[in-house]
Amino acid sequence: MTKDTLSSDIQHYSKLEIKVNDKKYLTISLIHDIDSTKIERTYKYTVENNSYLLKNKNTKPLLIPYIFGSLDTKKLYLSIDADNNLIINTVESRSGAVLLIGFLDWKTTQKKYVYNRIK
Asked: Does pTM top 0.85 for this prediction?
């Protein structure tokens, strides 16, 4: 599937900060446990159903989509539940065809992660 744009060695980062900059951009910061270093990324977003949908270059073609190939898409939704916990929903899908006649594969997976707020 598609490559995650926050792919880094994040296992030693325990704090996550999300800051909405304006109506188009938000910043995600990962803060290191020991030396307080940060990894920061700024993403475009849109709001859909009270969730932030990240616009992070999430579509990747394989060969020539729908002629002879497929299209991989990954969507990342961020939201807050009633207990102020962070909910991350990922939706990955792959679709393709051969000469617009025979569809090769149509696969969609969805995962939901809930992170408790640190008080």
From this structure: no
Cβ neighbour number for residue 14 with a 10 Å cutoff: 12
Q: Determine the distance from the C-alpha atom of residue 48 to the mean position of all C-alpha atoms in its chain, rounded to a whole number.
A: 14
User: Positive or negative CA dihedral for 95, 98, 99, 100?
Assistant: negative
Question: Which residue type, as a one-letter code, is found at position 103?
Answer: F
Determine phi and psi for 35, rounding to 5 degrees. Answer: -100, 5
More confident residue, 10 or 110: 110
Q: How is residue 117 written in tokens?
A: 């707020």
Helix, strand or coil, per DSSP, at residue 47 = strand
Residue 21, CA atoms < 13 Å, CB-side half-sphere? 12
21 with 29: CB under 8 angstroms? Answer: no
| Beta bridge partners of residue 39, listed in sequence order | 30
Helix (H, G, I), strand (E, B) or coil at 27: strand
Tokens 């859909």 — which residue? 48
